[in-house]
Design a protein that fits this description.
This is UDP-N-acetylmuramoyl-L-alanyl-D-glutamate--2, 6-diaminopimelate ligase. This protein is α/β, with parallel strands linked by helices and 509 residues long. It folds into three domains: 4-99, Udp-n-acetylmuramoylalanyl-d-glutamate--2,6- Diaminopimelate Ligase, Chain: A, domain 1 (3-Layer(aba) Sandwich); 103-347, UDP-N-acetylmuramoyl-L-alanine:D-glutamate ligase; 356-508, Mur ligase, C-terminal domain (Protein-Tyrosine Phosphatase, Chain A, Alpha-Beta Complex). Helix content is 34%, strand content 23%. The chain has an eleven-stranded mixed β-sheet with strand order 11-10-9-12-8-13-14-15-16-17-18, sandwiched between helices. The protein has a six-stranded mixed β-sheet with strand order 19-20-24-21-22-23, sandwiched between helices. The protein has a five-stranded mixed β-sheet with strand order 2-7-6-5-4, with helices on both faces. Helix 4 (118-129) crosses helix 12 (339-347), helix 11 packs antiparallel against helix 12 and helix 14 (407-418) crosses helix 15. The chain is globular and about 75 Å long. 50% of the residues are buried. Bound molecules: ligand UAG and adenosine-5'-triphosphate. Residues 114, 116-120, 140, 158, 183, 205-206, 320, 323-324, 354, 369-371, 375-376, 379-380 line the site of adenosine-5'-triphosphate.
């Protein structure tokens, strides 16, 4: 069982300039558990006071048997030994890693950040590495900590709270896995969920405005800063040179990583090829709904040394998936994947709710996808329209309530540019009226040729779009993938899931 002594904790916190003072602390005392939830505190555990905290939680933790607490403020009326720190989130991350014996050091870790493509790239990577290694996965969709069915569960956050993250990582190690692929959200850095965590390979996929607003990032600069933390916390770095803010991200990477360990890739014809030390250049060989194929060229010595130049089939349609696939190929090669396994892993893949396609007999082909902001909706719709210039592109979408308000105009803009029919509907409306959200999207579809309607019930909206489509049309159901719930008025209300609804209905029609 894990065990951690106060003396070790204080030394660790002092090294990181986090310790303010202690109160009634026995340096030789140790803990048999750690928790940030009073309801799960047990005898002999160390309790963290964090977030929207109320003092009664500490009393509750004590009643449940907690033997000390860590906090940014002292609660004098609760008689418990205390470790007072200047940042409880950073402290919790460090102590969690230490409590489990720094499990990251027993794993080869690959981390992805980016506004779009984290989940896709993580699944690609696991699919490749599974041919050679035993691989864990921390993704927005699933968390996989071992090989048995019980070791796979739905994730509640893209990157979990540090204590949960290191708990899961410890499971990965205990279950005998040797590699871990994970998504790192900007919130993870903002909230210090991954403070002190260093990755073997860190991949920066792209950045565009998103997650800016109440409860997330105050500004784009803050969002970029948070995402860039991955670059200075990775031994080797892969950067998509076609993403915006390349100078910024490259210089950030160079601050801590020597250029020899930074791998840049770009698409053939990219303007960045003349200005940056590009290592890989890829070109599209085939870019249809039926076949997505690229050629990857190594254009530097260190790129050549990875021996991955060649042609690759990508099992997911969409030109934007090419950059995800190239990033994945390089990252996988950096941790030892063979070219043969990279080819296999990229070509044979289904990712839950990411461009899952369903044929119908008498109507259009249906795609269920997770696009829910301008960058992703524009990428997917413009790709689908380019493939179907003479037939109709239907889209069914909404936008989440209580957050990401700036996403709504962007969705309208993308729909106006590439869709023929838009059925606006509910997507996790939260405490907002989904009709108001839909109205904002509709107001930004500046194209009278688009047939726009509102059907509040999401399942009805999906079935209507499919029924109205003809053979040859495409129907994009965007934004929820396989999410089995709708967030309504603070409650996760049960919902069949877009892919599940389409899978059943497409067989009937
Ligand atoms: C803003 C933020 O980071 N919030 C997260 C944070 O909330 P919090 O610390 O304020 O927790 P809280 O639920 O208000 O409760 C306060 C504390 O009291 C404790 N408590 C509470 C009740 C009780 O009886 N006893 C008790 O001890 C709780 O365990 C908690 O430690 O810690 C919680 C887990 O402890 C998270 O669930 C929660 O994520 C919120 C719900 C969330 O949705 N965050 C989103 C924005 C997010 O992080 N998204 C990113 C993806 C977006 C991106 O790409 O950037 C992600 O990584 O998923
Ligand atoms: N590289 C990319 N550029 C633009 N759009 C993309 C890219 N990759 C994927 N997408 C689109 O974005 C959607 C979400 O992709 P994915 O889940 O891989 O990204 P993510 O970074 O994990 O997103 P989120 O933070 O929203 O969970 C996909 O369903 C697709 O529509």
């Amino acid at each position: 069982m894990a065990n951690l002594i106060n003396g070790e904790i204080l030394q660790l916190l002092s090294e990181h300039n986090l310790l303010v003072k202690t109160s009634n602390l026995d340096l030789t005392a140790s803990y048999t558990g750690i928790t940030y939830n009073s309801r799960t505190a047990e005898s002999g555990s160390l309790f963290f006071c964090k977030g929207n905290f109320k003092p009664e939680y500490l009393k509750d933790a004590k009643n449940h048997g907690a033997s000390a607490y860590v906090s940014e403020v002292e609660y004098a009326d609760v008689e418990l030994p205390a470790i007072i720190v200047n940042n409880v989130q950073k402290t919790m991350s460090l102590i969690s890693a230490a409590f489990f014996g720094f499990p990251q050091n027993k794993l080869t870790t690959i981390a992805y950040t980016g506004t779009k493509g984290k989940t896709t790239s993580s699944y690609f990577t696991k699919n490749i590495l599974d041919h050679q290694y035993s691989v864990g996965l921390f993704s927005t969709i699933d968390t996989i900590v071992g090989k048995s069915a019980d070791d796979k569960f739905k994730s509640s956050l893209t990157t979990p709270e540090s204590l949960d993250l290191f708990t899961n990582m410890n499971q990965v190690v205990n279950n005998g896995l040797d590699h871990l692929v994970m998504e790192v959200s900007s919130q993870a850095y903002k909230k210090n969920r991954v403070y002190g965590l260093h990755y073997d390979v860190g991949v920066f996929l792209n950045i565009s405005p998103d997650h800016i607003g109440r409860n997330e990032h105050p500004t784009f600069a803050d969002y970029l800063h948070c995402k860039e933390q991955l670059l200075v916390n990775s031994s080797k770095v892969v950067i998509n040179a076609d993403g915006s803010h390349l100078l910024d991200t490259y210089m950030t990477a160079k601050a801590t990583t020597q250029p020899e360990d930074i791998y840049l890739f770009a698409k053939k014809g990219s303007e960045q090829i003349n200005d940056f030390p590009i290592d890989f250049v890829y070109e599209t060989l085939s870019d249809t709904l039926e076949q997505n194929k690229i050629n990857l060229n190594a254009v530097s010595d260190k790129a050549n040394a990875l021996s991955i130049a060649g042609e690759y089939e990508i099992g997911l349609p969409g030109d934007y998936n090419e950059s995800n696939a190239v990033a994945t190929a390089i990252a996988s090669a950096l941790v030892g994947a063979t070219q043969e396994n990279i080819k296999l892993g990229l070509s044979r893949i289904v990712i839950p709710g990411r461009m899952e396609h369903f044929a119908t007999k008498g109507h259009g082909t249906v795609y269920v996808d997770y696009a829910h902001n301008y960058a992703s909706m524009d990428s997917v719709l413009s790709f689908l329209k380019s493939q179907n210039p003479d037939s109709k592109v239907f889209v069914v979408t909404g936008s989440a309530g209580d957050k990401g308000i700036d996403r709504r105009p962007g969705l309208g803009k993308a729909i106006g540019a590439s869709a023929d029919v838009a059925i606006l509907t509910s997507d996790d409306p939260g405490y907002e009226n989904p009709k108001d959200i839909a109205d904002t999207i509709a107001d930004n579809i500046n194209n009278d040729a688009v047939n726009v309607r509102y059907i509040e019930d999401r399942k009805e909206a999906i079935l209507t779009a499919i029924n109205e489509s003809n053979v040859g049309d495409v129907v994009l159901i965007a934004g929820k993938g396989r999410d089995p719930y709708q967030k309504i008025n603070g409650v996760d209300t049960s919902y069949d899931g877009d892919a599940q609804i389409v899978a059943t209905y497409s067989k009937e029609v």
